[in-house]
Amino acid sequence: GNAYQSLPIAPMQKPLLPDDTHSFANFVSGLGNRVAYAAAMEAVENPGREYNPLFLYGDTSLGKSHLCRAMAYEFSRRHPDWTIICQSAETMLNFFTRCQQEKSMAKFRARYRRANALFLDDIDIIAGKLGTEKEFYYTFNALFGVQIQIVLVSNCHPKKIPNLDRRLAARFSEGLVQELTMPDTTVKSQILQQLAQESGITLKEEVAMHIARIITGNIRELRGAFLTLRAVSKNENHPINIKMVDELLKIDGHKPITIENVLEATATQCFSDRSAGLRALKSKARQADASGPRHLAMFLCRTLIPGLSLDEIGAAFGGRDHTTITYACTKVDRNRKRNHPPTIRLLESITTRINAS
Fold first, then answer.
1. Is 150 helix (H, G, I), strand (E, B) or coil?
2. Angstrom distance (rounded) from CA 36 to CA 95
3. Is 53:154 a contact under the CB 8 Å cutoff?
4. How far apart are CA 88 and CA 100, in angstroms?
């Protein structure tokens, strides 16, 4: 208990209530969010310790709010007697304004300082709001001082939030500051298959991968594409297949580029026998005449197909490892930047063939 415990508190406005729709169980972890996911799990196991505060940032719809709510849900499940505040920082800002108008700042302090865990989404909204910043600074210190877990979410790093009080920026950076980045194709495919499972429909892995390569945006766009496909699938009583995907999701009238497109175009351009060229590009063997074309094809896969992972590229080129792919791409890119004539000519010719396919 504390001095504020007995004060009456008005209901919160539009709280982000923890529920099992946003849990760790249905969060798909991958390269772009692995550290954030691990830190969130650790903070649940040992709240208020090493990762306090936990500050998650990144572009819109990459899973920040999902992780935030998953932690809140897990806390509510493990500690049913806890007071857990999980809401948008805008709700806190509105409540602060109301308390200020009513000349009752004690109510604001009572609400937030009695929390056993505090989760605030879109924390950047308080930047430049001097009264709110000052009050939250002291509230933050009060909670931090007794090892209450604090989780904050924003679109950018705390030290890059415009007009944010420097003391708050420093405080927000004291624990773990972790960025979430765009998921790669494999993770997006897993998200699609999870959505399909939750919807009770079948989605083949190769179809999910195909959708994942087409949708280069965030998870919200991926979900929107899936809902479109699901609606047509149910209406026509037909499973989602690649033909349906290409018809419904084609961008600007063009089909998405695939690894096979790149391989076909490279083999046609660089080898007298296209079929033999394809075999050479895909082979595990180290053929001297295939090395240059393979490097070009790997580079084009990396640059023309957004979200494609190194594992996917490696699998298409005879199971080659990350180091080999990175070396190949770096070498081609260096030659390109130096305007190396053969490299420039071949890249342009192969790209023209890809676009025409």
1. strand
2. 29
3. no
4. 19
> For the chain, how big is the Rg over CA atoms in Å?
26
pLDDT at 108: 95
217: region left, alpha or beta (phi > 0 left; psi from -120 to 50 alpha): beta
CA within 13 Å, CB half, 11: 5
Residue-wise pLDDT for 102-121, tens only, equals: 999 999 999 999 999 999 99
In whole angstroms, what is the distance from residue 310 CA to residue 328 CA?
A: 12
Mean model confidence pLDDT for the chain: 87
Over residues 307-350, the pLDDT tens digits come to 678 888 999 999 999 989 999 999 999 998 888 999 999 998 99
Helices 259-270 and 341-356 sit at what angle, rounded to 10 degrees? 120
d(CA 36, CA 27) in angstroms, rounded, equals 12
Is pLDDT above 80 for 8? no
* Contacts of residue 181, Cβ cutoff 8 Å, sequence gap at least 6: 31, 32, 33, 58, 59, 62
Structure tokens at 148: 């209450």
Strand partners, 57: 154, 179
Residue type at 196? Answer: A
Task: Name the DSSP class of 285.
Answer: S
